[in-house]
């Protein structure tokens, strides 16, 4: 049971920190059901998994397995969801998104709100610091991950 | 080398038909580079892979491996891309999308055009027939795949 947003965010934070230790991009996410049960969590797998399709959110979604409905689920992610992950939320009608921070990257959260998703931002100082440091130290990798590397 | 759109679409069609034979949802996709080389192809893996995160497009994207830029790539998909897959295209700046048909499902293609993606629709009669038959025969599975199963 993960009753509070802070407890839920700690699951995503743990995934992000585990990713950082693996040499990966430190973004994690977790999906919870309406009764605050953890359905699945995951982290960005670009580096350690060689897998560009697994962002934090899509990794958590995958690890949650097949669900018949997502309307009453909550996706908790350490970082504002990119368009890819925002599209996931919208398509599967995930009802709520909790964002750890949106100062180092701002994704599709306004578009989600416009389409009826409840979005809350924690603005967690530790998560801001982790991503700020990571982007400063790995600008190419970061831009590859969000598709903005110009060639 | 897959010089024409018809040749490219046949790769996606082959994936869709292989999925159908496996008892899965018959949607396939393939990603090509600027020189018409196949980077990767894949198919919906909800049923046979138990994997709700792998739609045709995300499966092709995954199988293409890490790429430093997608701006000059073309994503060919048998069916109009859902919001999840449209978000993938937008986030990674995939330059062009070729859609086999958009009569059985209409996804985020207008949104992609508005955001600078070139989108072309083939309206292939065989693909329309395959999806029409599949949706009629498996309505629950189909609605689960596009997140519209109401519970
Ligand atoms: Zn993402
Ligand atoms: Zn899709």
Automatic annotation (TrEMBL), chains A, B:
Ranges for domain CMP/dCMP-type deaminase come to 3-119
Q: What InterPro entries does the database record attribute to this sequence? A: CMP_dCMP_dom (IPR002125), Cytidine_deaminase-like (IPR016193)
Domain of life (superkingdom): Bacteria
Q: Which residues form a coiled coil?
A: none
The record's Pfam families line, in alphabetical order, gives: dCMP_cyt_deam_1 (PF00383)
Annotated protein name in UniProt: tRNA-specific adenosine deaminase
- Source organism per entry reads Pseudolysinimonas kribbensis
């Amino acid at each position: 049971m993960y009753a509070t947003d802070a407890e839920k965010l700690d699951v995503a934070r743990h995934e992000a920190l585990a990713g950082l230790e693996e040499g990966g991009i430190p973004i994690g996410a977790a999906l919870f059901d309406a009764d605050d049960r953890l359905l699945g969590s995951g982290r960005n797998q670009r580096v350690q998994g060689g897998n560009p399709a697994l962002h934090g959110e899509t990794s958590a979604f995958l690890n949650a397995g097949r669900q018949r409905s997502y309307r009453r689920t909550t996706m908790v992610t350490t970082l504002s969801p990119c368009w890819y992950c925002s599209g996931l939320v919208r398509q599967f009608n995930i009802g709520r998104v909790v964002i750890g921070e949106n100062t180092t990257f701002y994704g599709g959260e306004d578009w989600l709100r416009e389409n009826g998703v409840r979005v809350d931002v924690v603005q967690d100082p530790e998560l801001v610091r982790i991503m700020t440091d990571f982007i400063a130290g790995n600008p190419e990798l970061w831009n590859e991950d969000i598709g903005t590397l110009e060639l």
